[in-house]
Amino acid sequence: MTNDEVIKDMQRMQSGMRIQKVVATRSLKGRYGDTLLGFSAEWDSIQQDGTMGLEDVGDPTQGGLNAVDSQKAALLLGLQCDRAAYLNAAAGGNMDKAQAITAIKALTEGYMSQYKALCERTEQRSK
Questions:
Q1: Which pLDDT belongs to residue 30?
Q2: How far is CA 100 from CA 24, 33, 97, 112, in A?
Q3: How many domains would you assign to the chain?
């Protein structure tokens, strides 16, 4: 199989993928131990985690996110997870509040930059 054939097959697979769940976890080391945090997000789907219908959300006929939108969702969820980890570390005295605020500002800029770059790459490909 040639490289071009591999790329074409990867593109075919990617165009058909639908991502149902995005997960982000963080661990921050602090002066009094670790701050651990994890988030997961469902996209318009029915959860299959044994909750007996109590957690069903969305439309079961929907196919989830495409590959590009799943990358955007991962960035958004990662940002929320990072922010919460720093806020929790500061709230628990594991980090100075000023350090947490500085870190949150820097990571927000980084996530915004990555999100913008992803949007621009997607826009370039669609032209």
A1: 84
A2: 19, 16, 5, 18
A3: 1
Q: 6 in a domain, yes or no?
A: no
> Which two three-digit tokens encode residue 78?
């990662």
CA distance 62 to 45: 7
- How many whole angstroms separate alpha carbon 19 and alpha carbon 15? 11
pTM of the model: 0.72
pLDDT in tens, 58-116: 555 556 788 888 899 899 999 999 999 999 999 999 999 999 999 999 999 999 999 99
Q: Which two tokens stand for residue 113?
A: 């930059």
* Residue 110, domain extent: 17-126
Indicate whether 11 belongs to any domain. Answer: no
CA atoms of 40 and 19, how far apart (whole Å): 13
Residue 5 lies in a domain: no
What span, in angstroms and rounded, lies between the C-alpha atoms of 103 and 16?
A: 37
- By the 8 A CB rule, do 73 and 41 touch? yes
**Does residue 90 form part of some domain?**
yes
- Using alpha carbons only, what angle is made at residue 116 by residues 114 and 120, rounded to the nearest 5 degrees? 115
